[in-house]
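Predict the 3D structure for this chain.
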Amino acid sequence: MEISASEAVPDGLGPVSSDAPTAPPTPAQSAPYSEASHDELVRRVRLGTLEPIAAIEQVDVWLAEPLPGAVISRLVSDRLVWLAQAFAPEAALESQSTLSLELLHDYALYVQIGLARQARRIDKQGDAVQELLRRDRDDWQARVQEVIWLNDQGDTDRAEAALDRLSSDLIDPGAQEQAALLELEGLLAEARQQPTPALRAYSALLQLQPQHRYGQRTTSLMIATTGGASVAWQQAQALEASQPGSYSLLELARLRQQATGQELGWNLSTRSEQRGPQRQALIDPVVADLEEQLSSPALQEGLRGPQAPAWYEVQKALVFDWYIAMEESGQCRRVLRHYESWSPALRDVTLSARRVVGDCYSQSRQPLKAIPLYEAALGPAGQWMDRGLLSVHYSLTYAYVDVGAFEQSQAFLDTLLASTSPTIRQGPAAGQANPDYSELLNLQAMSWLYMGQVARADDRVTQLADLAPRSASFQLGAAETSRARQRPEASMERLQAFRTDQPDNLALIGALADTHRELHQWGPARLQLDRMIRDWPDEYGTQAAARRDRVARAAQLEVEGETGFGGNSGSNSVTADRDYRLRARLSSALARDAWRVFAEQSYTRSSLDDGSSQQLARTGIGLVWDVDRWRGEAQVHQATRDPYRTGGAGRLDLRASDQWDFTARVDSNSTDIPWRAREANIGAREAALGASYTVHESRRFIASGQFQRFSDSNRRTSWLLGWEEGWIQRPRWQFATRLDLGFGHNSADDAAYFNPSHDSSLNLANSLRILQWRDADRQMNHLVQIDVGGYRQSGYDSKPAGALSYGHEWNLGQSRTFSYGALVSTHPYDGRSERNFSLFFKLSMALP
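Done. Predicted structure below.
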């Protein structure tokens, strides 16, 4: 016996006499009522030869006749049964709304209870139950329905008391009664949201009655809510195959979605240990299943039906499982296209789905759209420190920095740190360092690094790495800060040491690839990246590393130009009244992990107000060899004029260590000569040497020497000593200085161009960089520089020299930089200061 009202059998009609006529009258005949006609009407409905609606019409004809009360009672009772068969529960109840329950037979009252439960009409359910109890307070079925009614209206305490009385009144319950009690226990546990007791009751019920339909159905539904969605779906499929109609289409859709979501979770967990194509092979079948469910006729029909809100929940769950699968497959663009095409009303997504869509926006470098999703994914402030939300903490912190919300990022981290104990407070490990707190400290350090506060980040993360030498995040953070401090070899040493412990750490391999590339170790960098692409092709870390590598190896275009106005507006001025300089260089993509071919074009023009002018164009082609510590460059060039118009140039750079760099270059036709030398058709050959010592990213010392031999036999030697210092590194602005001390000597006493026998200069450049706007890899900075100093040449007193420049710098993604500005300067020549105003620009970009 099954007591669920949803399982009520609506053909529980009164008895049918054995002498009923074989051909009852149809409603159209309007024959008077007789018991035999009534019995035959019931028989035909049961056999399916007459529709319940036709039977209802006949009953309505008979009810218009003057009939005894007992006959009316039977007619209205059967009419209710047929209403239940022919109409939706709400309509059936409405049709009987004016009928007194006292007229209904018991079997009709049970049908009334079933209709009321299906229609969620607790009031009508209670009226029918109370009418049954009024007739017989000790009736078993009536008392069962009382428990169900109390439970349905949420009064679980009274329902439990009624169940206890019902159970205690049974002295020797049979199998049917025991099954009913177990079903009631399960219903009560369900109402109290206690899946384990409910499952226990239904399992015991199925031991008594293995074919109990409601027990089988509800057991699978309960298993789905307790983490057994796949098992529940298998059970539901088997039950539905053997007993069609056991589940509604909505229930089947929910179970299948839950099972698919669980399978996705299992496959993602297993997938983390797989490499190469096997990773995607675990996702593809789940994706196909999700897409099949999303396009199923049942779902599409349900979205248009009366239960559309419930079907929308199923659809959203399917969509967000699909989002997770797509993100894991490295297909964030598909996720965003779908998400943005969906109605905003449907975007009230789960916390995990918000994280997924936020990650896709972040990976697509759209942090402004990611931030509100991350904030929503964290939920109420009390849930922020949920260990499972650590990835959201990281992502939101970096997203804030990506849009220049530095204060908000730090306030967020301060809140997290303040709500986390530095030590474990309870348990066997009480008093030890709290790993959650340490992870937050590391996150804070990485945010400082991301904001350009390198030294501050390095101090923090190095301390953490020393305290936890086996922590992957700390060791990788220490390697990254070391690289940011211009110490790539030290970074590589740390990474190689840690690689022994975690050879399959994707982030570690990516860091190795980046560091090899910074050291110009192109071959090892490519091998590391090839492994990432082979074993983890769908990971965002792999895709981001591949993008960085493509930019570094791509063809490069550099264009820079300047136009100046100055001099003393006379033929005796050292500087020109107007001058134009343009240089463009196009380099090929890196070939064989070492070689590039390049072409270079430069053009200069200088003119005076009297109309005289000089111009020079030079074209060169060459090769670059770039391997490990060495970088060599050689070119041949052709100029439009000058004594050394055809010649070559070369350069050799050596990175001896993280601290020391050396350079040497030669050029058979120097472009760094006074314009009046060119006017006199005088050229120069040039050689230069240089060395620099880098303490860290904010401090560097420079020494260089330049040697020029002019075609008029003059020899010029110049030396330069420099000190670069970054004094202030703030997220929104940085201040740095460069102090240069220069000396020069010319061998000729007289020349057609500016040619002091001895000269010296001292210059202090003060540069300020101010961030105006930032959006991921795109940002705009204001650049201000003030140069103050002095210049002295033989035969003249020392005089001040200086300059003021202002410009903008645009970073348009990882591969494009464009800057421009204006400069005003003054410099003494032969005891007379000459002023100059110039406009300049520079473009640097990687070509696809």
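Residues 505-551 form one domain.
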